[in-house]
Structure prediction request, 227 residues.
Amino acid sequence: QKEVEQDPGPLSVPEGAIVSLNCTYSNSAFQYFMWYRQYSRKGPELLMYTYSSGNKEDGRFTAQVDKSSKYISLFIRDSQPSDSATYLCAMSLSGSARQLTFGSGTQLTVLP
Amino acid sequence: ETGVTQTPRHLVMGMTNKKSLKCEQHLGHNAMYWYKQSAKKPLELMFVYNFKEQTENNSVPSRFSPECPNSSHLFLHLHTLQPEDSALYLCASSQGSGTAGNTIYFGEGSWLTVV
Prediction:
């Protein structure tokens, strides 16, 4: 079993839709959770960073962590074509940058 | 512009060639990383350098040889690679590598094809 599972997609949605991206994990000790966005032929960039359980909102993006279910989500409201990218979840025990465990990414296309 | 610059962006090499990937960070960070990204697979951490000292080598084959002359520059020397080594190689940096909350910044990557 992989430590972090992420549906690779591809996922296509119409512009304006609410997008839900998810990851499940097996290690209950993970405390720090991140979402990265990776545009085609670019490196990943940090989108959201959360600690422990709960929600965090930043503009159209909401990150949600449910530690009891070992499940994290990223919601994108009013999705735009510019949101088309691969979204990677990542998590770590200590928050240390060298101990990140990544999901394999979900490819999202927002159709105009 | 992410502050982490990688060259070359694309590289095609034969299995007997020797080539190098270069990374430079302009963020004043102390830690630098090499990751490998293959299609449909999670990012794999290869090497970590903290203040020019290698602190992590995740069982990477010796045909990959990192070099970190200072905190701003990182190289990955490649020799006698295999076709399965074809991937996107990402350099990254952060302010320290062992402290919670340190954000990692990635470069745009070097696409490597081994023929």
Notes: The CA atoms of residues 14 and 111 of chain A lie 5 Å apart. The radius of gyration of chain A is 13 Å. Chain A has a mean pLDDT of 92. The interface with chain B takes residues 2, 4, 8, 32, 41-46, 49, 88, 90, 94-98, 100-105 of chain A (CB under 8 Å).
